[in-house]
UniProtKB/TrEMBL annotation:
Its EC number is 2.1.1.44. InterPro entries: EgtD (IPR035094), EgtD_Methyltrsf_superfamily (IPR051128), MeTrfase_dom (IPR019257), MeTrfase_EgtD-like (IPR017804), SAM-dependent_MTases_sf (IPR029063). GO terms for biological process: methylation. NCBIfam families: egtD_ergothio. Residues 22-324 form the Histidine-specific methyltransferase SAM-dependent domain. Keywords: Methyltransferase, Transferase. The keyword Methyltransferase applies. This is L-histidine N(Alpha)-methyltransferase. It is an enzyme of class 2 (transferase).
Length: 325
Protein backbone atom coordinates (compact mmCIF):
# COMPACT_ATOMS: atom_id res chain seq x y z
CA UNK A 1 0.00 0.00 0.00
CA UNK A 2 1.36 3.45 -0.85
CA UNK A 3 2.70 5.62 1.94
CA UNK A 4 0.05 8.33 1.83
CA UNK A 5 -2.81 5.89 2.37
CA UNK A 6 -1.11 4.56 5.52
CA UNK A 7 -0.70 8.06 7.01
CA UNK A 8 -3.21 10.12 8.93
CA UNK A 9 -2.37 13.42 10.63
CA UNK A 10 -4.53 15.06 13.30
CA UNK A 11 -3.79 18.73 14.09
CA UNK A 12 -4.56 19.85 17.64
CA UNK A 13 -1.90 22.56 18.14
CA UNK A 14 -1.98 25.47 18.55
CA UNK A 15 -4.76 26.55 20.74
CA UNK A 16 -7.38 23.79 20.55
CA UNK A 17 -7.75 23.78 24.30
CA UNK A 18 -7.30 27.13 26.00
CA UNK A 19 -5.95 30.19 24.25
CA UNK A 20 -2.57 29.70 22.56
CA UNK A 21 0.16 31.24 24.71
CA UNK A 22 -1.92 31.54 27.85
CA UNK A 23 0.62 29.36 29.63
CA UNK A 24 3.45 31.70 28.57
CA UNK A 25 1.70 34.75 30.05
CA UNK A 26 1.00 32.84 33.23
CA UNK A 27 4.62 31.66 33.56
CA UNK A 28 6.12 35.09 32.89
CA UNK A 29 3.84 36.59 35.53
CA UNK A 30 5.32 34.49 38.37
CA UNK A 31 7.93 35.88 40.83
CA UNK A 32 10.46 33.45 39.30
CA UNK A 33 9.56 33.83 35.62
CA UNK A 34 9.16 30.51 33.80
CA UNK A 35 8.26 29.21 30.35
CA UNK A 36 6.84 25.66 29.90
CA UNK A 37 9.46 23.33 28.38
CA UNK A 38 7.17 22.36 25.48
CA UNK A 39 8.26 25.69 23.91
CA UNK A 40 11.74 24.22 23.31
CA UNK A 41 10.28 22.15 20.52
CA UNK A 42 9.70 24.13 17.39
CA UNK A 43 11.29 22.62 14.26
CA UNK A 44 14.75 23.96 15.10
CA UNK A 45 14.45 23.03 18.78
CA UNK A 46 13.51 19.45 17.93
CA UNK A 47 16.50 19.29 15.61
CA UNK A 48 18.81 20.65 18.32
CA UNK A 49 17.43 18.08 20.76
CA UNK A 50 18.28 15.30 18.28
CA UNK A 51 21.85 16.67 18.30
CA UNK A 52 21.88 16.67 22.11
CA UNK A 53 20.94 13.00 22.05
CA UNK A 54 24.19 12.24 20.23
CA UNK A 55 26.50 14.28 22.48
CA UNK A 56 29.20 12.31 24.34
CA UNK A 57 28.09 13.91 27.66
CA UNK A 58 24.38 13.19 27.14
CA UNK A 59 24.20 9.56 28.30
CA UNK A 60 20.38 9.10 28.61
CA UNK A 61 19.49 8.42 24.96
CA UNK A 62 22.25 5.94 24.32
CA UNK A 63 21.67 4.19 27.66
CA UNK A 64 17.92 3.87 27.09
CA UNK A 65 18.44 2.60 23.54
CA UNK A 66 20.78 -0.07 24.93
CA UNK A 67 18.11 -1.16 27.41
CA UNK A 68 15.43 -1.23 24.70
CA UNK A 69 17.62 -3.38 22.48
CA UNK A 70 17.90 -5.86 25.37
CA UNK A 71 14.21 -5.72 26.26
CA UNK A 72 12.33 -5.22 22.97
CA UNK A 73 11.68 -8.87 22.20
CA UNK A 74 10.41 -9.51 25.70
CA UNK A 75 8.20 -6.41 25.59
CA UNK A 76 6.61 -7.50 22.33
CA UNK A 77 6.08 -11.03 23.65
CA UNK A 78 4.40 -9.77 26.82
CA UNK A 79 2.16 -7.21 25.16
CA UNK A 80 1.23 -9.16 22.04
CA UNK A 81 -0.23 -7.25 19.09
CA UNK A 82 -0.71 -3.75 20.45
CA UNK A 83 -1.05 -0.40 18.84
CA UNK A 84 1.59 1.97 20.10
CA UNK A 85 0.81 5.51 21.26
CA UNK A 86 4.00 7.49 21.89
CA UNK A 87 4.00 10.76 23.84
CA UNK A 88 6.71 13.20 22.70
CA UNK A 89 7.77 10.98 19.83
CA UNK A 90 10.37 13.34 18.26
CA UNK A 91 12.45 11.40 15.73
CA UNK A 92 10.83 8.07 16.76
CA UNK A 93 14.30 6.48 16.74
CA UNK A 94 13.72 4.43 19.91
CA UNK A 95 10.38 3.23 18.62
CA UNK A 96 12.08 1.62 15.66
CA UNK A 97 13.58 -0.86 18.13
CA UNK A 98 10.08 -1.87 19.24
CA UNK A 99 8.70 -1.88 15.70
CA UNK A 100 11.54 -4.14 14.57
CA UNK A 101 10.75 -6.62 17.32
CA UNK A 102 7.01 -6.52 16.52
CA UNK A 103 7.65 -6.92 12.82
CA UNK A 104 9.92 -9.91 13.46
CA UNK A 105 6.94 -11.57 15.18
CA UNK A 106 4.72 -10.73 12.21
CA UNK A 107 2.45 -8.49 14.28
CA UNK A 108 0.40 -5.84 12.52
CA UNK A 109 1.63 -2.37 13.30
CA UNK A 110 -0.24 0.79 14.12
CA UNK A 111 1.79 3.66 15.56
CA UNK A 112 0.27 6.86 16.97
CA UNK A 113 3.00 9.43 17.69
CA UNK A 114 2.00 12.59 19.58
CA UNK A 115 4.30 15.61 19.37
CA UNK A 116 3.99 19.40 19.56
CA UNK A 117 6.41 19.81 16.67
CA UNK A 118 4.54 19.14 13.41
CA UNK A 119 7.65 19.25 11.26
CA UNK A 120 9.57 16.51 13.09
CA UNK A 121 6.41 14.43 13.48
CA UNK A 122 5.66 14.46 9.75
CA UNK A 123 9.28 13.87 8.72
CA UNK A 124 9.70 10.89 11.01
CA UNK A 125 6.29 9.43 10.11
CA UNK A 126 7.21 9.48 6.41
CA UNK A 127 10.58 7.89 7.11
CA UNK A 128 8.93 5.12 9.16
CA UNK A 129 6.26 4.43 6.52
CA UNK A 130 9.00 4.13 3.96
CA UNK A 131 10.95 1.63 6.07
CA UNK A 132 8.01 -0.45 7.41
CA UNK A 133 5.69 -1.58 4.59
CA UNK A 134 3.10 -3.00 7.01
CA UNK A 135 2.94 0.05 9.26
CA UNK A 136 0.04 2.49 9.58
CA UNK A 137 0.73 5.83 11.28
CA UNK A 138 -1.75 8.19 12.91
CA UNK A 139 0.28 11.28 13.82
CA UNK A 140 -1.19 13.67 16.35
CA UNK A 141 0.23 17.21 16.51
CA UNK A 142 -0.47 18.56 19.98
CA UNK A 143 0.40 18.41 23.66
CA UNK A 144 0.11 15.17 25.65
CA UNK A 145 -3.12 16.34 27.22
CA UNK A 146 -4.61 17.25 23.84
CA UNK A 147 -3.37 14.05 22.24
CA UNK A 148 -4.58 11.73 24.97
CA UNK A 149 -8.03 13.30 24.98
CA UNK A 150 -8.38 13.08 21.17
CA UNK A 151 -7.12 9.55 20.53
CA UNK A 152 -9.04 7.89 17.68
CA UNK A 153 -10.81 4.54 18.30
CA UNK A 154 -8.50 1.52 18.54
CA UNK A 155 -7.65 -0.25 15.26
CA UNK A 156 -6.15 -3.18 17.16
CA UNK A 157 -7.72 -4.80 20.23
CA UNK A 158 -5.09 -3.46 22.63
CA UNK A 159 -2.99 -0.37 23.14
CA UNK A 160 0.32 0.53 24.75
CA UNK A 161 1.23 4.12 25.65
CA UNK A 162 4.97 4.83 25.69
CA UNK A 163 6.68 7.78 27.36
CA UNK A 164 10.40 7.39 26.81
CA UNK A 165 13.55 9.47 27.21
CA UNK A 166 12.70 10.56 30.76
CA UNK A 167 10.46 13.31 29.48
CA UNK A 168 8.56 12.58 32.70
CA UNK A 169 11.39 14.52 34.38
CA UNK A 170 9.95 17.75 32.98
CA UNK A 171 6.89 17.37 35.21
CA UNK A 172 6.74 18.59 38.81
CA UNK A 173 5.75 15.94 41.38
CA UNK A 174 2.20 17.31 41.34
CA UNK A 175 1.97 17.33 37.54
CA UNK A 176 3.39 13.80 37.56
CA UNK A 177 0.52 12.48 39.71
CA UNK A 178 -2.00 14.19 37.43
CA UNK A 179 -0.23 12.74 34.39
CA UNK A 180 -0.32 9.13 35.70
CA UNK A 181 -4.01 9.66 36.36
CA UNK A 182 -4.52 10.60 32.68
CA UNK A 183 -2.54 7.59 31.51
CA UNK A 184 -4.58 5.28 33.69
CA UNK A 185 -7.81 6.84 32.39
CA UNK A 186 -6.64 6.54 28.76
CA UNK A 187 -6.02 2.79 29.06
CA UNK A 188 -8.49 -0.06 29.26
CA UNK A 189 -7.84 -2.70 31.92
CA UNK A 190 -4.95 -5.02 30.86
CA UNK A 191 -3.42 -2.39 28.57
CA UNK A 192 0.19 -1.24 28.89
CA UNK A 193 2.31 1.79 29.77
CA UNK A 194 6.01 1.84 28.87
CA UNK A 195 8.01 4.44 30.79
CA UNK A 196 11.69 5.45 30.52
CA UNK A 197 13.21 7.34 33.45
CA UNK A 198 16.62 8.82 34.17
CA UNK A 199 17.94 7.72 37.56
CA UNK A 200 19.73 9.60 40.36
CA UNK A 201 23.52 9.52 39.92
CA UNK A 202 26.61 11.58 40.86
CA UNK A 203 26.08 15.34 40.22
CA UNK A 204 29.22 15.62 38.08
CA UNK A 205 27.81 13.27 35.46
CA UNK A 206 24.43 15.01 35.53
CA UNK A 207 25.81 18.53 35.24
CA UNK A 208 28.10 17.56 32.37
CA UNK A 209 25.10 16.17 30.46
CA UNK A 210 23.42 19.58 30.55
CA UNK A 211 26.56 21.70 30.03
CA UNK A 212 28.10 20.05 26.99
CA UNK A 213 31.44 21.14 25.56
CA UNK A 214 30.01 22.02 22.14
CA UNK A 215 27.38 24.37 23.55
CA UNK A 216 24.47 22.58 21.87
CA UNK A 217 22.44 22.53 25.09
CA UNK A 218 23.01 26.29 25.44
CA UNK A 219 21.76 26.77 21.87
CA UNK A 220 18.74 24.57 22.59
CA UNK A 221 17.95 26.63 25.69
CA UNK A 222 18.32 29.96 23.84
CA UNK A 223 16.23 28.71 20.93
CA UNK A 224 13.22 28.78 23.23
CA UNK A 225 13.45 32.59 23.06
CA UNK A 226 13.65 32.53 19.26
CA UNK A 227 10.55 30.31 19.23
CA UNK A 228 8.64 32.76 21.45
CA UNK A 229 9.78 35.60 19.15
CA UNK A 230 8.35 34.11 15.96
CA UNK A 231 5.34 32.50 17.52
CA UNK A 232 4.17 35.49 19.56
CA UNK A 233 5.85 38.41 17.76
CA UNK A 234 8.35 38.99 20.58
CA UNK A 235 11.53 41.01 21.02
CA UNK A 236 13.89 38.72 23.00
CA UNK A 237 17.50 39.57 22.10
CA UNK A 238 19.30 36.22 22.16
CA UNK A 239 22.64 37.93 22.83
CA UNK A 240 21.37 39.28 26.14
CA UNK A 241 20.92 35.86 27.73
CA UNK A 242 23.19 33.11 29.03
CA UNK A 243 22.56 29.37 29.49
CA UNK A 244 22.77 27.93 33.01
CA UNK A 245 22.14 24.35 34.18
CA UNK A 246 22.71 23.21 37.76
CA UNK A 247 21.89 20.05 39.71
CA UNK A 248 19.72 20.63 42.76
CA UNK A 249 20.63 17.59 44.87
CA UNK A 250 17.92 18.33 47.44
CA UNK A 251 15.16 18.22 44.82
CA UNK A 252 17.01 15.58 42.72
CA UNK A 253 16.64 17.62 39.57
CA UNK A 254 18.59 19.49 36.93
CA UNK A 255 17.33 23.06 36.72
CA UNK A 256 17.82 25.01 33.53
CA UNK A 257 17.69 28.76 33.35
CA UNK A 258 18.45 31.64 31.02
CA UNK A 259 20.23 34.45 32.86
CA UNK A 260 19.35 37.98 31.79
CA UNK A 261 22.58 39.89 31.07
CA UNK A 262 20.93 43.32 31.02
CA UNK A 263 18.02 45.33 32.23
CA UNK A 264 15.49 44.66 29.48
CA UNK A 265 11.83 44.98 28.67
CA UNK A 266 10.28 42.03 26.88
CA UNK A 267 7.15 42.38 24.78
CA UNK A 268 5.15 39.58 23.18
CA UNK A 269 2.86 41.55 20.88
CA UNK A 270 0.59 38.69 19.88
CA UNK A 271 -0.14 38.03 23.55
CA UNK A 272 -0.47 41.71 24.41
CA UNK A 273 2.06 41.12 27.20
CA UNK A 274 5.15 42.89 28.56
CA UNK A 275 7.51 42.33 31.47
CA UNK A 276 10.93 43.47 32.69
CA UNK A 277 14.08 41.55 33.53
CA UNK A 278 16.87 42.89 35.76
CA UNK A 279 20.54 42.05 35.13
CA UNK A 280 21.20 38.61 36.64
CA UNK A 281 17.50 37.76 36.82
CA UNK A 282 16.65 34.16 35.93
CA UNK A 283 14.16 32.84 33.42
CA UNK A 284 13.41 29.24 34.45
CA UNK A 285 13.07 27.05 31.37
CA UNK A 286 13.18 23.42 32.55
CA UNK A 287 13.38 20.94 35.36
CA UNK A 288 14.72 17.50 34.59
CA UNK A 289 13.97 15.29 37.57
CA UNK A 290 16.03 12.21 38.32
CA UNK A 291 14.21 9.21 39.71
CA UNK A 292 14.58 6.16 41.89
CA UNK A 293 13.38 3.04 40.08
CA UNK A 294 11.53 1.57 43.10
CA UNK A 295 9.89 4.86 44.07
CA UNK A 296 8.53 5.52 40.62
CA UNK A 297 7.07 2.01 40.46
CA UNK A 298 5.34 2.60 43.79
CA UNK A 299 3.83 5.79 42.37
CA UNK A 300 2.65 3.98 39.27
CA UNK A 301 1.05 1.27 41.39
CA UNK A 302 -0.74 3.99 43.32
CA UNK A 303 -2.46 4.84 40.01
CA UNK A 304 -3.39 1.22 39.23
CA UNK A 305 -0.39 0.81 36.92
CA UNK A 306 1.36 -2.36 38.09
CA UNK A 307 4.89 -3.19 36.99
CA UNK A 308 5.12 -6.25 34.77
CA UNK A 309 8.85 -5.92 34.32
CA UNK A 310 11.57 -3.30 34.81
CA UNK A 311 14.97 -3.10 33.15
CA UNK A 312 18.10 -1.08 33.80
CA UNK A 313 21.68 -0.88 32.48
CA UNK A 314 24.82 -2.21 34.25
CA UNK A 315 25.51 1.19 35.80
CA UNK A 316 21.92 1.71 36.92
CA UNK A 317 21.83 5.03 35.12
CA UNK A 318 18.48 4.67 33.39
CA UNK A 319 15.34 2.59 33.89
CA UNK A 320 12.59 1.29 31.61
CA UNK A 321 9.35 0.09 33.22
CA UNK A 322 6.57 -1.90 31.56
CA UNK A 323 3.40 -1.42 33.58
CA UNK A 324 -0.09 -2.78 33.06
CA UNK A 325 -3.38 -1.30 34.06
C1 LIG B 1 13.63 15.55 26.72
C2 LIG B 1 13.12 16.41 28.85
C3 LIG B 1 14.20 14.30 28.66
O1 LIG B 1 15.50 16.60 30.46
O2 LIG B 1 17.17 15.53 29.58
C4 LIG B 1 18.09 17.80 27.30
C5 LIG B 1 15.53 17.67 27.63
N1 LIG B 1 17.16 19.50 28.18
N2 LIG B 1 19.03 18.70 27.55
C6 LIG B 1 16.11 16.14 29.49
C7 LIG B 1 16.90 18.30 27.70
C8 LIG B 1 18.46 19.74 28.07
C9 LIG B 1 15.48 16.27 28.10
N3 LIG B 1 14.10 15.66 28.09
Amino acid sequence: TPIQSRLNVIYLEPGQQGRDGEDVVLGLSQPLKTVPPKYFYDGRGSHLFEQICQLPEYYPTRTEMGILHQAAQEIVEITGACELVELGSGSSLKTRILLDAAQAKGQSLHYLPIDVSGSILKDSALALLNDYPNLAVTGIIGTYEQGLSHLPPRKLPERMISFLGSTLGNLTPGECEQFFQWIQASLKPQEYFLLGVDLVKPPKILEAAYNDGQGITAEFNLNLLAHLNWRFDGNFNLNAWQHRAIYNAQAQQIEMYLVSLASQQITLNALDFSCEFQPGELLHTEISRKFNLEQIQAQLRHHQLATVQAWTDEQNWFGVILAQR
